[in-house]
């Protein structure tokens, strides 16, 4: 059977607790993410999501991420190289009371829309900590 071009692909990270997501995440695939996150080791204080290869993500998937970090004692969520569409959704709907989100950009990350370095992330001043390379700096 031929592979659907933007079908969601989920794989587990080897070097840390987390997932690599590629393709499209929408309401029809949010259960796949929920199941994959549920299969991660219980009690993890951080969950890393490498989302550099996401082509599309909708509100239902972002709500799943919010629910993950909103639960009492829930983990900190670290998004690696999120695409612009995900950053815009976070800016629009992430609750200001939920501070357990870190956005991390690789020094060599490139914005697929412009072809330029993604550079410092913008938006949500004071609500999300961002990491660039190894150093951390408050948003």
Protein model, in words:
With 139 residues, this protein is an alpha/beta fold. The chain has one domain (9-137): Transcription Regulator spoIIAA (2-Layer Sandwich). 22% of the residues lie in helices and 29% in strands. The protein has helices spanning 30-38, 59-70, 84-93, and strands spanning 9-12, 18-25, 46-57, 76-80, 101-105, 129-132, 135-137. It has a seven-stranded mixed β-sheet with strand order 1-2-3-4-5-6-7, with helices on one face. It is globular. The model is unreliable at 117-139 (pLDDT under 50).
Short description:
The protein has 139 residues and is an alpha/beta fold. It has three helices and seven strands. The chain has one domain: STAS domain (Transcription Regulator spoIIAA, 2-Layer Sandwich), CATH 3.30.750.
Assembly context of the chains: single chain
- In whole angstroms, the N-to-C terminal distance is 45 Å
Number of discrete domains: 1
State the major sheet.
7 strands, mixed
The level 1 CATH classification is Alpha Beta
Strand order of the largest sheet: 1-2-3-4-5-6-7
Order of helices and strands: EEHEHEHEEE
Taking Cα atoms only, what radius of gyration do you get, to the nearest Å?
14 Å
What class, by secondary structure content? alpha/beta
CATH superfamily: STAS domain
Strand content: 25-35%
Share of helix among residues?
10-25%
Low-confidence stretches: 117-139
Instruction: Figure out the total of helices.
Output: 3
CATH fold-level name: Transcription Regulator spoIIAA
Mass-distribution shape: globular
Mean pLDDT: 77
**Tally of strands:** 7
Assigned CATH architecture:
2-Layer Sandwich
């Amino acid at each position: 059977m031929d592979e659907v071009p933007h079908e969601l692909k989920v794989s587990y990270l080897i070097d840390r607790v987390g997932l690599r997501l590629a393709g499209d995440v929408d309401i029809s695939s949010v259960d796949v993410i929920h199941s994959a996150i549920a299969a991660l080791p219980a009690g993890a204080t951080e969950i890393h999501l490498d989302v550099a290869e996401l082509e599309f993500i909708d509100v239902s998937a972002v709500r799943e991420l919010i629910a993950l970090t909103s639960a009492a004692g829930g983990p900190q969520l670290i998004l690696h190289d999120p695409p612009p569409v995900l950053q815009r959704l976070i800016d629009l709907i992430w609750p200001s009371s939920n501070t357990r989100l870190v956005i991390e950009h690789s020094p060599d990350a490139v914005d697929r829309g412009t072809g330029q370095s993604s550079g410092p992330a913008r938006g949500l001043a004071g609500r999300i900590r961002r990491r660039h390379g190894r150093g951390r700096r408050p948003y």
